[in-house]
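I'd like us to work through together how a protein chain folds, taking it slowly. We need material for that, and I hope you will provide a protein of your own picking. Go ahead whenever you are ready, and we will take it from there:
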Amino acid sequence: MTSFLQLAGRILISIIFVWAGWGKLLGFTATMGYFDKIGLPVPPAAAAVAVFMELGVGLALLAGLFTRLSGGALAVWCVVTALVAHTNFADRNMEIHFLKNVAMTGGLLYVVAFGAGAYSLDALLSRRSAAVRAVA
């Protein structure tokens, strides 16, 4: 049951990153415009980092690949984006986004603490590695 819950948790928490990263990738120019609008005139390479973090690392988390590292990286990402993009507490929407990022950080820290579980690429790679060591 625990491994199933770990899988469900990874799926649910990764959806927001994959969805947002995919949107940023498809609307890269709009992403750059949004960053400029909130006062972050970033070069295209920095926007590409945002796409990689959300889409790439989000997919790794979804698959359970390098799960603890992926979860930790996304936890840091959530804190950084909360502090950079969601601190206008006079705007209720931004306050909610800030708190959403804080809550996601908490969930991601659980991923870091407890790992991916049995239904993950990490577990598959671990089993294969153990089989290779047993043969050698």
User: Anything to note?
Assistant: Residues 2-135 form one domain. The chain has six helices and no strands. The two ends are 33 Å apart (CA to CA).
